[in-house]
Design brief:
mainly beta; Immunoglobulin-like; 5-stranded antiparallel beta sheet; 5-stranded mixed beta sheet; 6 helices; about 15% helix; disordered N terminus
Length: about 425
Amino acid sequence: MKLKYKIFIIYLFLLPLMLYPQNSKKQKNIQSRYGFEIKRRPPVNYTVFVDYNDSTYKPTVFISFSIQYDKIQFEKKDRNYEGGLQLTASIMQNDLVVTKETWNEKLTLNSFEKTNSKDYQLYIYKFRNIKPHNEDENFQCVISVMDIVTRKAFIDKRSFKINKFNENKNIIPSTKLIFLLNKPKRNFSIPINPNDSILDYGRTYYGYFRLLKNIDDSLNINIRIYKDQKKDQKLIRQMYKKVYNDSVIIEIPTAELSEGEYKLSLSGQFKDMFFKTEKSFSIIWYEKPLYLYKRDLALRPLKLLLSEDEMENVSDMNDEELGKWFKLFWKSKDPTPDTDYNEIIDEFYKRVDEANAKYSRKFKEGWETDQGKILVLFGKPEKIINRRYTVGKPPYIIWEYNNGLEKFTFIDEDKDGEFILVEGNGG
């Protein structure tokens, strides 16, 4: 299912605390037990964005960063779990500090499960009225985050520019194009995507930029999305939007897009002036179930859904036919066919992953065991009656669903840890 975000916006900046420097431009991959790499979100991400005041166009530097809860040390306090960060953000120019802020942030979570989750805390800090040491456009952002409990620190530096306005009278200057996690509310901080040009699969984002010239009438914006092919880029979406001020927020249909590499291009014309801004981006499914990385793996547990004849028919298909069949099979079950993300396939293969994690045997995947099969088909039981340590008879477990109307009884007859289904009335 979709990743849940707890957005805690304080005009604060920064990059979280970590055991080692992370760069949001770098993709983190880990090795799966099947030998291929799987993608995981870096635990720390941040990005720097320069915006300008509505009337004076003086620069304001935003720093947006996120840190996963499982990288913060929490301590139990009463019924909650508390952690803390000490944050420092510095803007530098030619190794001289232009401005600097340090402050502490307290985090409180209400469950131990959340402290070990991949959910993240988002912070946004902004520096106003920056007074550079000289006319040079180049700056550096230096961030430091320290876990107050462990005293472990994360420190990183990133270069950015505060550009001078374009003097070309035929061009409307603008800020760079960035992605927002959601549409900002009035008088509230803009929720900048801390992962910059990497977007989560299945999520809708908003493009944001500011025109650095007053527009006294509406402006039509041409929105194009290109997908990278092997040798070129293919136009896959084109839309138009009319805007009425210099601060432009556009909903981008990223939830409709599959994983891959893309480019967003925005352009427009006002009288005899033109503007154009572009941004390349990637869409990554960080929470993709393991079996969906390889089609041969994904086909295996389908025997739980298909008859023997249907499975035999599938096994006779060539690779191209198999790919088309697999896509159509799950598309027919998709509750939201207008988006690329399919909640049903995601849930099915997440259950497969969970079954493998809990019930795998030496020569048998977890989903192939009786408990694994029921978990995949019915989900987690509402109630478990556990009699693993009974005296005088084999250990047994009862899973109940639908307020007890559906029950499955598993017995460990050989007392080897594998529970076999002996009775069940599930639909």
